Amino acid sequence: MNKVMLIGNVGKEPEVKYIDRGVCVASLVLATTERGYKLQNGTEVPERTEWHNVVLWRGLAEVVEKYVHKGDKLFIEGQIHSRNYDDRNGIKHYVTEIWAESLEMLTPKTKNEEQGE
């Protein structure tokens, strides 16, 4: 089973584009953070942040285009997809992405958003 569940914050404004026959695709970077803690022997384990590349398609991408911004907290469920490519210099690059199947916005709306301003 290939299933990923993430809760994190959007690291920069999402990128949205329309491809083949008007299909909307959004990509965003999501930061998830594990809290730091102290071991029984007193050793401090620092906080650790991971950055995830998330791809959303069609309706989910349109929601992202309208409502998601840098700093927003999201709950994403999806699958891990890996790919590789060679750049112009022949150097191989590896990319790991989360292809979202569902999205829940966890950041409360501001008064302006609720009033449609």
How would you sum up this structure, described in words?
The protein is mainly beta. It has one domain: OB fold (Dihydrolipoamide Acetyltransferase, E2P) (Beta Barrel), CATH 2.40.50.140. The protein contains two helices and eight strands. It has helices at 58-67, 111-114; strands at residues 4-10, 15-19, 23-34, 37-38, 44-45, 48-57, 73-86, 92-105. The strands form two sheets. A five-stranded mixed beta barrel has the order 1-3-6-8-7. A hairpin with a 5-residue loop joins strand 4 (37-38) and strand 5. The longest helix is centred in the middle third of the chain and has 10 residues, at 58-67. The chain is globular, with a radius of gyration of 17 Å. 15% of the residues are buried. The model has no long low-confidence stretch (mean pLDDT 92).
Helix share of residues?
Answer: 10-25%
Order of helices and strands: EEEEEEHEEH
What is the 3D shape? globular
The average pLDDT score comes to 92
Tell me the span between the first and last alpha carbons: 43 Å
Measured by DSSP, the beta-strand proportion falls in over 45%
Return the CATH class: Mainly Beta
Summarize the structure.
The chain has 117 residues and is mostly beta strands. It has 2 helices and 8 strands. It has one domain (4-108): Nucleic acid-binding proteins (OB fold (Dihydrolipoamide Acetyltransferase, E2P)), CATH 2.40.50.
